[in-house]
Design goal:
By secondary structure, the protein is an alpha/beta fold. It is 38% helix and 28% strand. It is built from 9 helices and 13 strands. Helix 2 runs parallel beside helix 4.
Length: 265
């Protein structure tokens, strides 16, 4: 019996929209499927929370895919290697507490861990805005406004759709796409020293590895920052192709939000 093309189409359509429908109201929406976003999604979904990840590009992994300058090897330090060890990614000691890992193995393993733990990943989806509501007289992010990335790239004037989320993780990295939109369209102050986006500073890997984790926190009611987005928000440095801080940042974001959600039960 030959393939029935309509059955194939129906299978894809029904499966996709069942997945999408299950994410119309989620516990956590992660924007950006880089290392911190995938780590946060993995840790939160395995705790039983409903997690959706939205990635603008066709591929996931953010900067981790390419390692350094397309040499697809990444580096982690002693503190950060625990996340990859738990995921089952092979590590090789280089020297003095620095370990290398295959960038492809690390990225695909984190993605697999997130998906198999129950997180729903939607690639080719752009986040063009956020939902805002009043909560006790204070504005709060309560969801995302999303559209197809090809629609965005083509510049077509097609309206987006919306999902609700108890918490949002902004993990779009250097661009801070969601946070910039929040600031640009609303008269709000962030939980930063200036009340705005402090901006990313130049390369200082040692400092950046530490502050990536320190800066992982709630930046606005309902929104957390992780990974490079955390450093760019709070005015710290970039770190290049060393990823331990990014992984630990995703882990910390998951821990903070998990605790908040449990308090609210």
């Amino acid at each position: 019996m030959g393939l029935e093309e309509v059955v194939i189409t129906e299978a894809i359509m029904d499966s996709y929209y069942e997945k999408f429908r299950s994410c119309l109201q989620v516990d956590i929406a992660v924007v950006g499927a880089g290392p911190s976003g995938l780590t946060a999604a993995w840790h939160l979904s395995r705790q039983g929370w409903n997690v959706a990840v939205f990635e603008r590009k066709l591929s996931i992994g953010g900067g981790m895919w390419g390692g350094g300058m397309t040499w697809n090897t990444i580096v982690v330090q002693e503190e950060g290697k625990t996340v990859l060890e738990e995921a089952g990614v092979p590590l090789i000691l280089f020297r003095d507490g620095y370990y290398t890992a295959d960038a492809i193995a690390a990225t695909t393993t984190l993605a697999s861990k997130a998906c198999l733990s129950g997180a729903k990943v939607f690639n080719c989806i752009s986040v063009e805005d956020v939902l805002i509501r009043e909560d006790g007289g204070q504005k709060k992010v309560t969801g995302l406004v999303i559209n197809s990335s090809p629609v965005e790239i083509a510049g077509l004037h097609i309206d987006p759709v919306v999902i609700e989320s108890k918490y949002v993780i902004e993990s779009t990295g250097h661009p801070l796409e969601v946070l910039h939109t929040l600031i640009r369209k609303n008269d709000v102050r962030l939980f930063t020293p200036s009340g705005g986006i402090e901006g990313e500073q130049s390369m200082w890997a040692e400092r950046a590895e530490r502050t990536t984790v320190e800066n992982t926190r709630e930046i606005f009611p309902g929104m957390y920052v992780s990974g490079m987005a955390a450093n760019a928000s709070f005015g710290s440095y970039r770190m290049g192709p060393i990823f331990g801080g990014m992984l630990l940042s995703g882990q910390k974001a998951a821990q903070l939000i998990d605790a908040r959600l449990r308090e609210e039960i």
